[in-house]
């Protein structure tokens, strides 16, 4: 028996258990609960990835100083950078491995909710078939028909999460640009990486990155409803998880920014 058949059978059994609570939508509820359980099980990996990101952020000023000092001596720069990582016991890839380890799990979950072999797609959510698509819902009852309303609710939730992610990403980019300017290095505003080397198209790509969150809306429109449920659930979990794991860093940055404004004694500031 394949892993997909095993997971599909387990989900069917879970749906049977909660059917008294959710009725005909028990399978859809089981998909959401299964997604939450899987993300909870992967949370230690997410915490490890967050620690890696914090480590890289903590070393960014020293790395920027090394790049400025040895800008004309690449060999010495590599040696000093390696020495810094050895001294701090970190790695330039800190946090990447935990994130990569999650990818196979996400692939399995995605395949499970887009494949007819599991038998899950024959069930419904408030009458809308889990194997159906938005175009079918529009054909069956229109945008505000019984099936269309299910998709509208998913679109609304996905849009709210995407907007939150977008605003957080914009704020982070603005802080990174301010930090880069303070350190005298090229940043996203002028298309330069941390070491100041020009990379064509980097500025445009950096500006586009926050908009990728809205790609979830496109996915909901083209994927089966079961996969859309999984995608919205896991995306919402990721947004909440990142806010939780990085709350200390965000709070510190906010306090630093407030302290900077309070301590500003420039003529423009004191004139009023």
Automatic annotation (TrEMBL):
The keyword Membrane applies. It comes from the Bacteria. It is a multi-pass membrane protein. Residues 29-245 form the Membrane insertase YidC/Oxa/ALB C-terminal domain. InterPro entries: YidC/ALB3/OXA1/COX18, YidC/Oxa/ALB_C. It is found in: Membrane. Its main location: membrane. The chain crosses the membrane at residues 24-42, 93-113, 148-167, 211-232. Keywords: Membrane, Transmembrane, Transmembrane helix. Residues 249-264 have a biased composition (Basic and acidic residues). The keyword Transmembrane helix applies. Residues 249-272 are annotated as: Disordered. Interacts with the Sec translocase complex via SecD. Specifically interacts with transmembrane segments of nascent integral membrane proteins during membrane integration. Required for the insertion and/or proper folding and/or complex formation of integral membrane proteins into the membrane. Involved in integration of membrane proteins that insert both dependently and independently of the Sec translocase complex, as well as at least some lipoproteins. Aids folding of multispanning membrane proteins. Belongs to the OXA1/ALB3/YidC family. Type 1 subfamily. This is Membrane protein insertase YidC. The gene is yidC.
């Amino acid at each position: 028996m394949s892993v997909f058949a095993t997971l599909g059978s387990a989900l069917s059994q879970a749906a049977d258990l909660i059917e008294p609570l959710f009725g005909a939508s028990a399978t859809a509820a089981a998909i959401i609960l299964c997604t939450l359980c899987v993300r909870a099980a992967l949370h230690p990996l997410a915490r490890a990835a967050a620690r890696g990101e914090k480590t890289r952020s903590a070393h960014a000023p020293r790395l920027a100083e090394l790049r400025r000092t040895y800008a004309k001596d690449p060999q010495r720069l590599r040696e000093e950078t390696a020495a810094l990582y050895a001294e701090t016991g970190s790695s330039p890839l800190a946090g990447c491995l935990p994130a990569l380890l999650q990818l196979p799990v996400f692939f399995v979950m995605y395949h499970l909710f887009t494949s007819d072999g599991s038998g899950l797609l024959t069930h419904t959510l408030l009458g809308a078939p889990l194997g159906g698509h938005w175009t079918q819902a529009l054909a069956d009852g229109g945008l505000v028909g019984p099936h269309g309303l299910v998709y509208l609710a998913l679109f609304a939730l996905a849009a709210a999460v995407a907007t939150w992610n977008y605003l957080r990403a914009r704020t982070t980019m603005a802080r990174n640009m301010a930090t880069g300017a303070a350190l005298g290095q090229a940043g996203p505003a002028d298309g330069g990486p941390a070491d100041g080397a020009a990379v064509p198209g980097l500025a445009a790509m950096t500006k586009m990155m926050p908009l990728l969150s809205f790609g979830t809306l496109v996915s909901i429109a083209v994927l089966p409803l079961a996969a859309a449920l999984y995608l919205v659930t896991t995306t919402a979990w990721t947004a909440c998880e990142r806010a939780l794991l990085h709350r200390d860093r965000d709070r510190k940055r906010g306090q630093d920014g407030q302290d900077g404004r309070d301590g500003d004694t420039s003529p423009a500031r004191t004139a009023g």
